[in-house]
Amino acid sequence: MKHSDLNNSETPLAQELADNTHRLKRANAAKVSKPKNTRVFTVSNQKGGVGKTTTAVNLAAALATKGLSVLVIDLDPQGNASTALGVEHHSGVPGAYEVLINKLPMAQAIQRCSTIKNLYCLPASIDLAGAETELFTNFSDEERRFRLRTTLWEFLESLPEDRRPDYVFIDCPPSLGLLTINAFVAAREVLIPIQCEYYALEGLSQLLKTVEMIKQQLNPKLVVSTILLTMFDSRTRLATQVADEVRKHFAKEVLSAIIPRSVRVSEAPSYEQTIITYDKSSSGAIAYLEAAIELANKGA
Asked: Which of 5, 79, 142, 149 could form a disulfide with 186 if both were Cys (CB 3.0 to 4.6 A apart)?
């Protein structure tokens, strides 16, 4: 790249930088509506590699930077959400396992994110890998599916109304097992990240069937309220075709904001940060901030 490319306002790079600057200024100035009651989202897609955890932590971080109180519940034994939020989550640290299996009050396991005010995390450790077996072994059929809802509601009810989180995001493992079922039962809304690549809709029908089953049998208030398009590569025709196809089938649910494929977004967790703090002026950070604003104002 030539140095003159940065000074020439007509080059694609210069135009992109100018566009990002304008978008960031607009997003920073945008107001977000505070929900009347805590909104609880399950972020789920059993297809791996779609940006599920990335979406959960970055939307949470973006909303927190807008002054809202946000809790991320990490239900994935890999603990990637906990890593991105910079909280301790090694074996022995109280977290989701202790809350679900040992009935530890949630308030005793929640940690504050050190880099963003108003952002909290219930971490996950590798201990959570055995939670599904223990739920089957040690709890009744009804209780094992309602463990997370019970403990989350107890936590929320223990707080004064003005101190309750505005948002809760539950990050699920990439499967439709008992941990994910617990998340669906605890939530009111489902947020589905869909990558703008071939096979993007693979498995989505099964996920929607599962949501419908949960709605009929366990949680009648559950709705798929939000779909977010991720890993969008504007250089390919395929990405645009996939985005158009998703919008055609889910016009009301799909956010207009689209998350681009971004190296910076992928790098951030290795520094125990979200993209919102790692590189707030990057295209990925701006896109997640725009998506968070849209989500907040759409459903409040």
From this structure: 149
Cβ atoms of 114 and 65 closer than 8 Å: no
Each residue of 159-198: pLDDT tens digit?
Answer: 999 999 999 999 998 888 899 999 999 999 999 999 887 7
For residue 20, with 0-12 CB atoms within 10 Å meaning exposed, 13-18 middle and 19 or more buried, which class applies? middle
pLDDT in tens, 259-293: 999 899 999 999 999 999 999 999 999 999 999 99
- Integer Cα distance of 37 and 161 in angstroms: 9
Q: Report the predicted TM-score, pTM, of the whole model to 2 decimal places.
A: 0.93
Q: Determine the Cα–Cα distance for residues 231 and 162; give it in Å rounded to an integer.
A: 36
CA distance 69 to 71: 7
DSSP letters, 125-193, are -GGGGGHHHHHHHHS-HHHHHHHHHHHHHHHHHTS-GGGS-SEEEEEPPSS-SHHHHHHHHH-SEEEEE
> What totals of helices (H) and strands (E) does the chain contain, helices first?
13, 8
Counting residues of the chain whose pLDDT is more than 70, the rounded percentage is: 96
Residue 181 included in any domain = yes
Of 90, 75, 171, the closest CA to residue 132 belongs to: 75
pLDDT tens sequence across 25-52: 999 899 998 999 999 999 998 777 788 9
Residue span of the structural domain in which 249 resides: 34-299
- Residue 192's beta-bridge partner residues? 227
Q: Is residue 17 part of a domain?
A: no
Question: Taking each helix axis from N to C terminus, what angle separates 141-157 and 178-186, rounded to the nearest 10 degrees?
Answer: 40
Dihedral, 279, 284, 290, 293 alpha carbons, nearest 10 = -60
- Report which secondary-structure segment, H or E, holds 254: strand 254-260
Give the pair of three-digit tokens for residue 266: 């992928």
Q: Does residue 131 form part of some domain?
A: yes
Give domain status of residue 13, yes or no. Answer: no
